[in-house]
Every structure is written in structure tokens, then in C-alpha cells.
Amino acid sequence: MVATGDACLRCGASLSLIERLSLENTVEVPGRGSLCPNCYRELSPDEYSFYFKS
Fold first, then answer.
1. Residue 8 and residue 51 in contact, taking contact as beta carbons nearer than 8 Å
2. CB of 23 within 8 A of CB of 36?
């Protein structure tokens, strides 16, 4: 999926919808956008490095 300002960088889900329906907050990726809580929990070590290491 193509990432937009309101989409999870990994799965493309609507972040505003997730925040309205869930008690969890999205996870900000500096300089890129955000991940939904589910995708953040499922990140492999390589994916974590891709999103959070420069």
C-alpha cells in the first residue's frame, strides 16, 4: 500500500481510525510518519533498524 499522512508506514491502515477505536496510540517514526501499534509490536529486528536507526 502507498503510505499517506494518515496511514501506517508498514500496513497502510488508517491511523486516525485506529486511535479512535483503540486505547493504544500510534508510534511515531522520526522524519517518516507513524506505525500502528500492531505493526510496531510485530517489527523484526531488521525492520526496527530500518524505521528507527539512521
1. no
2. no
